[in-house]
Design brief:
Helix content: 40-55%
CATH superfamily of one domain: lambda repressor-like DNA-binding domains
CATH architecture of one domain: Orthogonal Bundle
Distance between the termini: 34 Å
Order of helices and strands: EEHHHHEEEEHH
Largest sheet: 2 strands, antiparallel
Number of helices: 6
Mean pLDDT: 75
Number of strands: 6
Shape: globular
Strand order of the largest sheet: 1-2
Length: 153
């Protein structure tokens, strides 16, 4: 899935690039890192970081590797939340087509709406959450937060 053509002839970011960018922003803010500091770590300008976070610039494999190193996460962190694989042809050289496609899972409001930073409460929650080392405890905390958010709607 590449860029989609917009009505003005320019390409719009793909949903995958937007999702990966939102995950970059989420991790950066959870670590209390500015765009400028992340840019310095990756030898980029903060404007380039902004473009990655908005999904305007696609993150290549080597850049993804660098982000994993800086953020101390595995590559799957950036794709967490992508799901619903459905049939979609994807031709491979010298082979029969393979069927793959996906759609974005429901993304919480505020993560992909724009470049606004997270609130202090959101940052504190994410920072505390990332410090939970037990995966079962993390899952239970996530389930609790989800159930509370549904109950308050």
């Amino acid at each position: 899935m590449g860029k989609r053509a917009g009505s003005d002839g320019e390409s719009a970011p793909s949903p995958i690039d937007i999702h990966v960018g939102a995950r970059i922003r989420l991790r950066r803010t959870a670590l209390g890192m500015s765009q400028e500091k992340l840019g310095d770590a990756l030898q980029l300008t903060f404007q380039q970081i902004q473009k990655y976070e908005r999904g305007v610039n696609r993150v290549g494999a080597s850049r993804l590797y660098d982000l994993c190193r800086v953020f101390k996460v595995s590559p799957d962190y950036f794709f967490d939340g992508l799901s619903d694989f459905e049939a979609r042809p994807m031709p491979l050289p010298s082979a029969a087509p393979v069927s793959l496609s996906f759609s974005l899972a429901e993304e919480p409001a505020g993560l992909t709406d724009g470049p606004e930073p997270l609130s202090a409460d959101q940052t504190e929650l994410l920072t505390a959450f990332t410090r939970i080392s037990d995966p079962d405890v993390r899952r239970r905390v996530l389930d609790l937060v989800k159930s509370l958010s549904v109950a308050s709607s």
